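Z., the sequence and structure:
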Amino acid sequence: MAGLDWVQVDVGFPMSLPVVCAARTLGMERRAFVGAMVELQIWAVQAGAPSVDVSTEAGRRWRECLAWLHDHGKRYALTWLAQARAVDVEDGRLVLEVPDAHFRQWVQEHYGQMVEQLARELGLEGVCWRVAEGIRAPLLG
């Protein structure tokens, strides 16, 4: 696990253990690995606000949240939050589906308050994070 720590500190988000192990197996130096991850993060940010299915109320509200983050310089958060999928609005709360429990914990700890505040500003009661069933976690999560 020590290998994950230096990546999280330098890049701003944790890498999965297989990614770090693959980099070490390939003989990548720490600096080259971190540089590649930063380039990936920059590429994701330059791609703009992520595409969201806006055919539902949940999708429209989530798109508004993501667009606000993008437009207000919080693009670093999109690396993670764009992987969440708006599935419903239940009891006034936006229900967001995420790939796995680790992902949910990390996002809640780092961006939970910000997303809750945005949801309230959009007239919702808040956000409910749910782990999707039968979906594999993303490689960079």
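Residues 1-11, 43-49, 137-141 have pLDDT under 50 and may be disordered. The chain has two domains: 2-46, 57-131.

Let me know what you think.
H.
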